[in-house]
Design a protein that fits this description.
By secondary structure, the protein is an alpha+beta fold. A hairpin with a 4-residue loop joins strand 1 and strand 2. It has a five-stranded antiparallel beta sheet with strand order 2-1-5-4-3. The chain is 50% helix and 13% strand. It folds into two domains: 114 residues, PAS domain (Beta-Lactamase, 2-Layer Sandwich); 107 residues, Homeodomain-like (Arc Repressor Mutant, subunit A, Orthogonal Bundle). The chain is built from 13 helices and five strands.
């Protein structure tokens, strides 16, 4: 015991954590940091860093939900040519009604509670297309007095190499299979066997990662794929319904509106108007 105590004492540094010298160093470091930021010619210099982060879309919005900043990646995803076109837009100008409302509710919760939203997996419909799932992180923005003045965050592709979401690795094969075969008849038991999980385990994993069941994820994937065709092709609604696994056009229209808040015809009309340069709003 005495030998062990002796080794421990020899390993303990003279400048122990919490010592007066360490506290003094921390205080000096804070002063250095404050002086550095005071000398900066505006905070936008840091934003330039986001232009060089691949597949990371940075944004900032005010308390009213109006975009005040966005990096080049975000502009490309939204089909915009410059940040000037983004400023002043709201999510309702970009996303379908229901998606925009969900985003706004998340923003309001972050600003109200001051608690960050970390790695939320969500489907984002955008101006030119409606592809895949994204991982979103949001934090409140405060002024010099500590009052919340908006929200900032970033979005990155869910299936981007290196993207990690807790629990997602166990269902990646099922997600990939749904993306590749969304128009086919897919059963939960078959998906569970594919990833060597029970049906209950598969359902729990999907709810943990995506906030929905495997069946709901499959339906959302069909809606997303169909929305691509609505914006990029002149296919009839009946053909789009058939191509993406809906039993008939009426079911397609009903389920599409349930997910987006817009009918397929209205979705196509607004996205095409937006892609042509018009500002859309419901």
């Amino acid at each position: 015991m005495s030998t062990q105590r002796s080794k421990t004492s020899r390993k303990t540094p003279a400048k122990a954590r919490g010592s007066p010298r360490a506290a003094e160093s921390g205080a000096n470091g804070s002063a250095v940091q404050a002086a550095f930021f005071a000398r900066m010619a505006g905070g936008r210099q840091f934003w330039a860093l986001f232009e060089h982060l691949p597949d990371v879309d940075f944004f900032a919005k005010d308390t009213e939900g109006r975009f005040v900043a966005g990096n080049a990646g975000l502009l490309r995803r939204l089909g915009l040519r410059s940040e000037a076109e983004l400023r002043g837009l709201c999510d309702a100008d970009i996303h379908p009604t229901r998606v925009a409302r969900e985003i706004r509710e998340d923003d309001a919760r972050v600003m109200r509670t001051r608690q960050p939203l970390i790695d939320r997996v969500e489907a984002l419909f955008i101006r030119s297309q409606a592809k895949d799932w994204y991982v979103t992180t949001k934090l409140p923005v405060v002024d010099a007095r500590g009052a919340v003045i908006g929200i900032m965050g970033f979005v990155r592709p869910y299936r981007q190499e290196g993207t990690t979401v807790a629990g997602a690795e166990r269902i990646d094969a099922a997600v990939a299979h749904i993306h590749a075969h969304h128009a086919a008849r897919l059963s939960v038991p078959a998906l569970a066997r594919l990833v060597h999980l029970s049906e209950r385990q598969l359902n729990r994993r999907f709810r943990e990662v995506f906030g929905m069941s495997p069946q709901a994820f499959l339906l959302r994937t069909r809606v997303q794929a169909a929305s691509d065709d609505l914006t990029a092709t002149d296919k009839t609604l009946a053909d789009i319904a058939q191509d993406h696994g809906f039993c008939h056009q009426a079911a397609f229209s009903r389920l599409f509106k349930a997910h987006t808040g817009e009918t397929p015809r209205r979705f196509r009309e607004l996205r095409r108007k937006s892609a042509a340069g018009g500002k859309t709003s419901d």
